[in-house]
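Changelog excerpt

This revision adds worked examples to the README so contributors can see how folded entries look when concatenated. The first example is reproduced verbatim below.
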Amino acid sequence: MLLSGIFPPITTPFYPDGAVYYKKLESNIERYSRTPVAGIVVQGSTGEAILLSDAERRDVLKSAIAAAAPHKVMIAGTGIESALETLRLTEYAAALGYDAAMVRTPHYYKNQMHPANLLAFYRTVADQSALPIVIYNFPQATGYDIPAEVVIELANHPNIAAIKESSGNLDKVRKMVEGTRHIKRTATVTEAFAAVTPRMIQAAEAEARQKQEKESRELVSVEALAGSASAPNTEGRRASSPVQGDATSKPSSSAVSVIGTLKTRQKEVGFQVMVGAAHQLEPSLALGAVGAILAFACPAPTACYEIFAAIKEDDLPLAREKQDRVKQAVQRVVSELGVPGVKYAMDLNGYYGGTARLPFLPLTGDQKKSVEEAMSNLRN
């Protein structure tokens, strides 16, 4: 599957008493669905997944996908320390209709996480998962940095589609891009080369059926008004043009197929390197990364997308200008203040951020002022 573009790893909203605020979660997702982001990651590090109970993680996954637009790629964070529990949560996400699973590196027993351990862990998960797997490397939080050589070897597994590399190490990004160039796969995409997933195909097929049923009812109604309901003009119906997007319609060209209301084609993709460091988005994309999962996209999705779009248009000066525009804010909001900073920046930009769970502390007045200054020219 195609994972190109910008993905916000959404936060989990809470009431003041710490309970999950599901209505605000749904509201945030509905708003992200109207932005140019390619998709949404649910229950990543910015979502405080590690601070939630198993029941809360499942309920958040369920509420999030129900609120998302069908054309957005939905990635579930399902990584837990053991392969068994990771598979259980991944199976649940698959049943909900998620498009991919993001699995962070096991790290609690980091001194025993040798290459053989990581190879066995990810291969076991990928072998049994119904969803494509995205490796998630975040050494600033886990204290463990998966070696590029291990990633390159794992990339050969047919069900491991990508990595989210959050180390900020550009040399490592370059090494992984170059080391996986030999991997050739195909993905279904739209005519405009946007991602198409099984969930999107199901939605398109359902929409096509609804259109057919509506047209059928309208045809019967017209015939009844004309006094011919007892002898329907079946020949006339055969002559009428098919519903656009009819699941049985033939492709308009040899390169295009019609599935429901979707016109699709095939695109060659390899192992996809995504990054998680917004302050290095432009150079990472220039090195061959295909997209990014960025905490800073939670309060500023459009600002992040503009960098990606400039690179896609081969406008490097504009991409660098857009990168410079966000660099200071990323440093203050994400790198220094973390989840509480991201949530306050979201409050400033019309999303619901709210408070974070302990052991996070609320921002001080001076910290809030610094976020306001950093975000002053980045209102979305």
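The second example, added in the same revision:
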Amino acid sequence: MRAQEEDYGIIPGSMGAKSFIVKGKGNHESYCSCSHGAGRLMSRTKAKKSFSLDDLVKQTEGVECRKDGGVIDEIPGAYKSIEEVMKQQIDLVEVVATLKQVVCVKG
């Protein structure tokens, strides 16, 4: 995502994690860019083999979203920790606001 000085953007977590409104710091060593999301820990195929519908229900507790076999590949456990991703780019963006996930629309 573009993160030039004063650029605003959103960096989303997984369907069960928070998201962040950020302001770019214009770090030229990173080509004035930052991550555009949490990023996957595992492939969609591996996620489908590794997690169950019960896992999906538990990991998305408190979030209004689809909780069926068609979205198991999007389970929060298949993604990196958004908190860790944000810690690793404190020199790229300033967090302006943190958004708590309450609804997620997939497919």
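Reviewer comment on example two: The chain is about 20% helix and 15% strand. The longest helix spans residues 44-50.
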